[in-house]
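Inputs:
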Amino acid sequence: MTLFKQIALILSLFLLIILTTVLILNFQSANKGVQDRLYEDAKNTATSLSLSLGSANGDLSMMSTMINANFDSGNYRNITLIDVDNITLYDRTIEGDITAIPKWFFKATKIEAPIASANVSAGWSQVGILKVQSDATYAYKQLYAILIDLLISFGVIALLGLIIINLLIHAILKPLKEVQKQASAIMRNEFIIQGEIPYTKEFKDVVLGMNNMVSKVKAMFDKGNEELKMHKELEYIDQNTALKNRQYLIDRLPEYLKIDASSKGGINIIVALSGMIEANEKLGHQDVDKLFIEIANILRSSSKIFKNSIVARINGTEFSLLLPDCTNEEGLELAKNIYDYVTKIIKDCGLNKDETFISLGLYAYIHTDTIAQLFSNSDNALAQAKFNKNNIHLVKTENTNEVMGKEAWKKIINQALFKNRFSFVSWSVINTKAKKLEHHVLSINLTLDKSTSYSYAQFMAPAIQAGLSSNIYTNVVSMLFKTPTMISSSSTYSLRLPYEYLDMKETYEEIRELLKNKALPFKLIIEMPDKLVRKDSQHIKLYKDLFQKYDIEIGIFEFIGESDDYQYLQELRPAYIKAESSYFMSQSAQSLSALRLITDSISISLIAVGVVDIETVDALEKKGIHIIQGLATELIEV
Amino acid sequence: MSLLLVNTSFSDEDYVNKPLLDEITQKYKIFAKKRFHFLQETLNSVKDKSDLEKLEAVNTFFNDVRYSSDIKIYKMRDYWATPWEFLGKDMGDCEDYVISKYFALKYLGIDYKKLFFTYVRSTKFKEPHMVLTYFETPRSEPLILDNNNHKIFSASKRKDLTPIYNFNGDVLNQIGKDSKKSHKKWDQLKLNMQRKKI
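Outputs:
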């Protein structure tokens, strides 16, 4: 129960007790007043009637007539005349019950109409005593009306009182609400600085303390952000040409060379400059550097037309152009253009084009290649190019014999989609330091029948080729939310959703509808690619708000720390960041420390994926990365 | 019951206790104290005597007090003084004589049911008046204790008085549930006596 509710409850009870007490006292006082009135009326009657009876000289018939006249004209319950020996001489009593008021009120309120008496005499001698009791009917009616009035007025007072109490507590505890908001924000790793400092001393101290703490954490985050940006420039950028470097290319390649890559292949061109020693001798270092910058500009502008292309300087005299979705023909034409441009520049510099020239080795890669295959085939193509007349050579991918043709795969996948033949399998993510399971990663299997089953790695590539990957994810996400019981555990699961699927507008709507209908029996983390979340777009904000509403966390995968600003991590506040183990291994101590500064300040875990052996686990531990995913998890006892 | 029968329900305590007497002395000075001593002596002298002797003694003692109207003494049109005010000031009107006689006789053990405050009209003075009446039995002819006529007579001998109304507050107090109420003036007097108004 919140503090507000507790105080409101106590004060309301206090108010109601006071009001009830006052009401009861008021009612009792009214009751007493009514009874006093009854007595006074009776007493007045007794006195005046007894004086009148004195004139009857003890004649009972005369006295009875007088009593009747009084009784019939007034409101009396009883008038009795008793003689000096206590014998009743005459008596009149009202018949019937009081019906003008509710029975419950009559039972609850005891009005004892007091008996007033007066001596009756005739001359010097005594006649006896006259007793008069007023009729309480009128008193009951009056008292009932008083009670109703009291209840109405007290009801109004109570209502007003409660409203005023409510407003007062709201006003007094308003700063506490702000303090609470700030505390909740801190728990969500948000950096909120409270602008309004409360007047109440205790609240003021808390707010100032929290502001101070938040400022420090924010400063830590900003420092990390700045350092990481600085290191990124040092680690990924070639200082001379401002192109990306070999490290960058290696860190980015896993995104292109994977089963469910958005592009199934393209051309990788290695551009090598020969005769640089001669060029240095003729022009000097400064002009040669300028020449490199010009060449870099040509490469940059030539590759622009290919979406997601990477241009990197991989050593002193070689450049690499990774061109996704580039055909062999486009690659060769582009290589020819580059060759012509660069040759012209070399000539313009006054260099001999037979001494100083470029060679372009083209390799038509496919997304299932390994990094090593891509580099060795590209090197091979370059070696061939150096011997070619036109200094350009294309090495095509060896045709791997597919078990099944594209159409056969398409048929199988469509069938699986139609019959909901996808199922979940899970892999563990382990904390090697704490020796505990962090969460399960969900993967998808395609099971056509009892004897035919395909893993994600087998069916995803043909699915991408057939343009069915988003359909599969739609099917799988729907299955996850509609029949969560198929995952028989109440621990934490993560589901990786690819860029293309998340980027589709209808995906958001689909997920939103699915979330409305069913609560998940387990904790879910949706993994999103860094490439998508670092855009920090409106689209991502929608996802973030939606997931936050349903207590679903966000994870980031394919992180290589190439953003210009890490503020997006602060905005998104993911549970963790997943990066290839090779990325963590290749990072310098300063870079990792800067990254840590950011992630630690907002409680983001770092997870290395693709960890295959114990050597890598040990190496990662030395770098302070303790959470791993990959085959090596099977070697660690939890 | 004979008037000569002795009533034995007489209290051992003084009619006016010492602390109250000290207060009266402080307020009304030494002569007042003397008057109360005389009263106590008078009461003591008849405590074992018959009702009639008690009536005589009490009537005689109090009829020595000077008559004065309430307006003169209390600046009020009508005020029922406590026995202590009456004897303390050594003056009072007809109701004050009746009150003092009534309580003195009660002290002497006379059954209060026999004593009545009687509103009468004095044909001699042509004005309202009050006397104390004593009924040996409820149906017997009452004796009249009057401050105008110092001698006790039976009612039939008092042609100068026309009876109007008898009342006894103590009797009425017995009837109603609320024993504090019976007669406005009587109720106020009882309250004043409780508060030891002097």
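Remarks. The longest strand of chain B covers residues 115-122. Chain B is about 45% helix and 15% strand.
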